[in-house]
Amino acid sequence: MSAAAADGSGGAPAWLACRIAMDGPLTVAEFMTACLHDLRHGYYANHPSLGPRGDFITAPLVSQMFGELVGAWMAEVWRQMGSPAPVQLVELGPGDGTLMDDALRVLRHVPGLLGAAELWLVEPSRPLRALQAERLAYARPRFADTLAELPPGAPLILVANEVFDCLPTRQFVRAPGGWAERRIGLGAAGELAFGLSPPPSGAAEDLPADAYEGAVAERSPAQAALAAEIGARVAEDGGAALVVDYGRAETGYGDTLQALSRHARVDPLASAGVADLTVHVDFPALAEAARVQGAAVSPVASQRAFLRRLGVEARAAALARSRPDQAEVIARQLHRLTAPDQMGELFKVVSIHTQGLAPPGFTPQEGTP
Fold this sequence. Notes:
By secondary structure, the protein is α/β, with parallel strands linked by helices. About 35% of the residues lie in helices and about 25% in strands. The chain has helices at about 15-25, 30-35, 45, 60, 65-80, 100-105, 115, 125-135, 220-235, 285-290, 305-310, 310-320, 325-340, 345; strands at about 1-5, 25, 85-90, 115-120, 140-145, 155-160, 170-175, 180-185, 190-195, 215-220, 240-250, 260, 265, 275-280, 280, 295, 300, 345-355. Strands 3, 4, 5, 6, 11, 15, 16, 17 and 18 form a nine-stranded mixed beta sheet that branches. Helix 8 links the parallel strand 4 (about 115-120) and strand 5. Helix 5 (about 65-80) crosses helix 6, helix 9 (about 220-235) crosses helix 10 and helix 12 runs antiparallel to helix 13 (about 325-340).
C-alpha cells in the first residue's frame, strides 16, 4: 500500500493503530464505522455534540418550522393512506428529539392520528437516546437499534433527516493502471495516512473505464441497503418515508468525506473518533435501491423547493406576527433553511412510498428544483 502523510500531526490513536497493525489498512467505510460507532472510542457511541455549541447543527435545530412542516407532511400522508390504525410513526437517527417534538405539536391537532400512532425512534447511540427519551417522555416512544427491529404488519410514516450521510462509504480512485481503493493505514511517523490498494474482486466492476485519472468515485452499500430496507417495508406494509440529507441528485465524481468539529471542517485523519464524519448521499443509488423493492420514489427536490411547497414562508410570517420581537431571528432562520447558498440547495429531499400515494412537497414533472 502506498501512503501519503495526513495533514494532522502526531501519531494515530492507539486503538486504531492496533487494529491497523493487526488487520491491515482500513477501507474508508471501515474507518467511518470505527470512528463513529466503536463502543469505546466512537463519536456517536460516546460523545455526540449537536447544536450551536456543539459540532454541527441540523435543520430542526435551526428552526421549529422545519419539524412542524415535517409534521404537516406526515399528517397529509396519513390522510392519503386512509387514516390507518395502527400506524407506526418512525424517526431514524432522531438527534436530540427536536424534530419529532416539533412534528408532534402539529400532529396532536389531527383528529385520531396520535391515538392510532405508535412512536418508534431508531437510535443506536445511547447518549442520544437518553436525550430523546427525556425530551419526548410525554409521547412514550419505543426505541430500536435498527429498522429491522420494528414489528411488521403495520403501515409506517418515517422520517430520516441527516442519517444516510453518516453511513459508511467506500472510495475508489482512478489510477494510471485502473481503479484502486482508498484505504487508511499508518505513515512513516505512525500517523494515519491515506493510501491506495487494488480493490477486491468485483468491487469496481460498475465504475466507468473512461474516468479521468485522479477521479474519486464513492459507493455506499450501506446507503443502498437502508434504502432497500425502507422500500421493502413500505411496499409490503404500506406507508411513506421522507429522506432529507445533503448529497448528489446525479451520480458523479468527487471526494466528499469530511469531518466536522465546532462547526468547522477538520482533517478526518487527525480527528478520528472525536469529530463527526459524513459523505454526500448518492440519491440516484438510494432511489434505485428502493424501487427494486417495489416502492415508488418521488423526484429529488431541493430542501428549498420542498419547504416552500409545504408553506414555510407562510409559517414564518405567522410566527413573526405572533412574536414581533423575534421577527428578525425568524427571517434569519428562514434564510438558513431555504437560501440557495445555505441549506436550500445543498440539502435534497426524496419520498419513498407505496405505489399510488402522492406525498406533498414534490412535483412529478421535476427533477431537482
